[in-house]
Amino acid sequence: MSSAVFSTSAAQGRPFIFDEESIAKKSVAKICPQPTGIELFPETHRPPQKVPRIPGAFNDARLAAITPASQLAIRPAPEMVSSGIPALDALTGGLPRGCLTEICGPASSGRTTVLLSALASATQAGEFCAVVDANDALDPQSIAAARVDLDRLLWVRCGDNALTENQALEKLLRATDLLLESGGFGMIALDLGDLPPQTARRIPLTTWFRFRRAVEHTPTVLLAIERQSIAGSCSSLLINLKSLKLPRENRATNSPSSPAHAQLLTQLEISAELVRSRLERKPVRSAGIAFESRTAWAG
Asked: What architecture (CATH level 2) is domain 80-247+266-298?
């Protein structure tokens, strides 16, 4: 950088220092100003304007790519199969394939009757079925009396006195996973009716969700026989059962030689209530029916 010193009388002898390079640059700028991008392309070099955010609008590009619920494809209704009980089929339309159905009720409420009737209907139609028995509560004579085709039935017995409750429950869940993965079954039933409620609730909700996804898009009917509903929203159909008061003429078959306190149960009147159904496009009101269950020795 070069500098020059000038003295004037007006400055009272004080020197003034000027930068020649800066003066030259200022002179050139005034004489021949350099064009800027804004002057050459005024439309493309405008500063970006802020777009006002509208409440409730899709301001994010990722949200804008989401398909609205109104445009989602409607899932076709599942195929229904008979439960073997006409009154129950009239109430629910049957048992849905590719879905989880819960049959709940206390002891002597008709849970086994519904299970054996569904197995008999499926095996007589030529389908293979499997029962995962948590406590070895299934009676072979009752199965035969219900006209279940034993050649088409797989009985998985998970009850073992040497196993703890947690081990038996783990064995049951593992067997169910293997059956669902193998495929080829028209019906898979989990008999949890004799498990204590506190034990049955140890099954995580994620397990039921996995079962539901595994049976989805398959022709398999997944049944869960329980005391209380434990699958939550994973079940597509929920039915509650309870026994009604027995008619007097069906309470006992007494003979003059039999003791006065001896009674033989020959028939049970059952009430079924449809609690939840996710198969219809509108909410289902709670509805109930009644049907009868006869013992094998009563004909």
From this structure: 3-Layer(aba) Sandwich (3.40)
pLDDT in the model for residue 103 = 96
Q: How far apart are CA 119 and CA 242, in angstroms?
A: 20
CB-side neighbour CA atoms (13 Å) of 80: 17
Arithmetic mean of pLDDT, 47-76: 58
Mean pLDDT, rounded, for 236-248 = 80
Residue ranges per structural domain of the chain: 80-247+266-298
Residue 215 dihedral angles phi and psi, to the nearest 5°: -85, -10
Assign 125 to helix, strand or coil. Answer: coil
Strands (E), 150-236: 153-157, 187-191, 221-226
What does the buried/exposed string (b/e) look like for 7-42 if buried means 16 or more CB atoms within 10 Å of the residue's CB?
A: eeeeeeeeeeeeeeeeeeeeeeeeeeeeeeeeeeee
Helix (H) or strand (E) holding 172: helix 165-182
CA distance 115 to 108: 13
Q: What is the rounded distance in angstroms from the CA atom of residue 81 to the CA atom of residue 98?
A: 11
